[in-house]
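User: I'm preparing a small set of examples for a lab meeting where we compare how different chains pack in three dimensions. I only have the primary sequence for this one, and I'd like the structure in token form so I can line it up with the others. Please keep the answer compact; I'll paste it straight into my notes.
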Amino acid sequence: MKIHHLNLTVTDVPATQEFLETYFGMTCRANRGKGFAIMHDEDGFVLTLMKGSKVNYPKTFHIGFPQENEEQVNKINQRLKEDGFNVEPPKQLHGYTFYVEAPGGFTVEVLC
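Assistant: Understood. Below is the structure token output for the 112-residue chain.
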């Protein structure tokens, strides 16, 4: 059994949607204006984004995008940095990893 669906409340649905499409290859299958979007990945995972005026996830809450290798982690890190995101270089922790604050008010981990 695997998790197939997750809903995130975000402060800015269009910006979050663009972020997930640009850096993580997710595809928007449907949306309702600026308040709701249905995203899919290549494995059929469904991520819905719902607009909320306040987003207050616990400090340790995050979603993860595993990569095939360190080179892919480095490429995403560099691209985010070049596009103005505040990202630290990847580190060897529980894997080769880094974190980035996504538009919309949540944290993303990129790792291999």
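A couple of notes for your slides: The chain has a mean pLDDT of 96. The chain has one domain: 5-111.

User: Perfect, thanks.
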